[in-house]
Amino acid sequence: MEIAQLYQKFRASSSISTDTRKLTKDCMYFALKGDNFDGNKFVSQAFEAGAKYCVVDDKKAVINQNCLLVEDTLTVLQQLANYHRKEIKIPIISLTGSNGKTTTKELIQTVLATTYNVKATKGNLNNHIGVPLTLLTFSSLDFGIVEMGANHLKEIQFLCSIAEPDFGLITNFGKAHLEGFGSLEGIIQGKSELYDYLIANKKSVFINTDDIKQVQQIGAYSKVINFGSSPNNDHTIKFENANPFVTLSYNDTRIESQLIGDYNYSNIACAIAIGEYFKVTSENIKKAIENYQPKNNRSEIIEKNSTKIILDAYNANPTSMLAALKNFKQLEAENKYLFLGDMFELGNEAETEHQAIVDYVEKHFNSNTYLIGENFNKTKTSLLIHKFSTFEDLKPHLKQQNLDNCSILIKGSRGMALERILELI
User: Fold this and answer.
1) Given this model, what pLDDT does residue 377 score?
2) Which CB contacts under 8 angstroms, 24+ apart, belong to 323-326?
3) Do 65 and 90 meet the contact criterion of CB atoms below 8 Å apart?
4) CA angle at residue 106 from 254 to 97, to 5 degrees?
5) Residue (of 400, 351, 394, 353) closest to 371 by Cα position
6) pLDDT tens across 9-27, in order?
7) CATH topology of domain 90-291
8) CATH number of the domain at 3-71, out of 3.30.70.590, 3.40.1390.10, 3.40.50.920, 2.60.120.260?
């Protein structure tokens, strides 16, 4: 079936779904396949749940005239998304980076939504499946915001070929997904594929000039919108403090956010710059950012009785872990406790990077440190640091501790699920 024909059936459907447990009535169901699942086996359930069409790539799955047989469902999903992107012709802002992508995306959406009709990637649907699904939810909008994630070279390049962004930005280059990229240089090259696309297609780039590596990567390209602390920028945004919440100012406007950590300054600054560029008023920018609250275990501040907890258990890599520790170190608080979980996808660098974190902790924190996970358990530490191979090993020890009147940082990769510590405090 030609993409143009499939597109007409998509337009006659209510939405796209890849999961029969979550589909909506009159949707178009795509039977995707993975290592441990085959969506072709659930076509009957899809129709029973209300699907209008089912796109399949197994002849055995064709059970009626509304089954649309294609060579490969994933490839067709991506082609359909690109076809739709060309049809709707809206400005698309894309962003990638090692840390802060989702927070920055949400801040940009919050700021632009004060003035425009805008839609963005939900959650972290930022890969080769999530980006097409995101694009297929866009319609008559003033802007679409597409988050792009990657753990190998050429992934951002491929996602750009689907989304065809008009504007782009990179939050930062950090030590994330070292296993896939191989090195920090590989990470920089991979993330910069967004710049490569924008330059090749003469599109616009937002650059944080406080990040020297970004400035170096963009080179002499002319269609650049600069922002940062320097007065020479197109958008000058001054960092004031982060104790604990980030406060900044621009154009005689002072913004007191609900985001902790000076590392969030650049995320907020990016949203301010984009808001200003697209003529959002200072009043609306201030209101949007000051009302934004982090969620989903991202730098959340939680108070339980007399205890203050920074819950940052959505994800972790060496760069974000060190940034969180540095921020926690400078906070004005007594009785500080650390609960740090393993950082994943570091490949051959896992041992070195976990030891580097431990070395920093031993230099700047006291004995109230708890390390959880196989990688942290292998590190060389003093006897004062508590190490546990698994969360289950930690539980009985934690139940015996009195954690009243203290400040706690919880930080680890998503797979560690360290938010479970809250149930034990």
Assistant:
1) 94
2) 323/99, 323/261, 323/263, 324/261, 324/263, 324/299, 324/409, 324/411, 325/357, 325/360, 325/361, 325/364, 325/365, 325/409, 325/411
3) no
4) 100
5) 394
6) 999 999 999 999 999 999 9
7) UDP-N-acetylmuramoyl-L-alanine:D-glutamate ligase (3.40.1190)
8) 3.40.1390.10
Domain residue spans of the chain: 3-71, 90-291, 300-424
Q: CA 104 to CA 259: how far, in whole Å?
A: 11
3-state secondary structure of 115: coil
The H or E element containing residue 355 is helix 350-364
Which residue, among 103, 78, 80, 81, has the nearest Cα to 92 in the 3D structure? 81
In the chain, the N- to C-terminal Cα span, in Å, equals: 57
409 touches 324 (CB < 8 A): yes
The residue assigned the tokens 């792009």 is 148
**134: exposed, middle or buried (C-beta count within 10 Å: 0-12, 13-18, 19+)?**
buried
Tokens of 256: 């007191």
Residue type, 424: L
Q: Is it the case that residue 314 has pLDDT exceeding 90? A: no
Instruction: Give the C-alpha separation, 57 to 138, whole Å.
Output: 26
Ranking 198-202, 294-298, 355-359, 421-425 by mean pLDDT, the lowest is 294-298
Residue 173: half-sphere exposure toward Cβ, Cα within 13 Å? 24
Please, what CATH class does the domain formed by 300-424 belong to? alpha beta
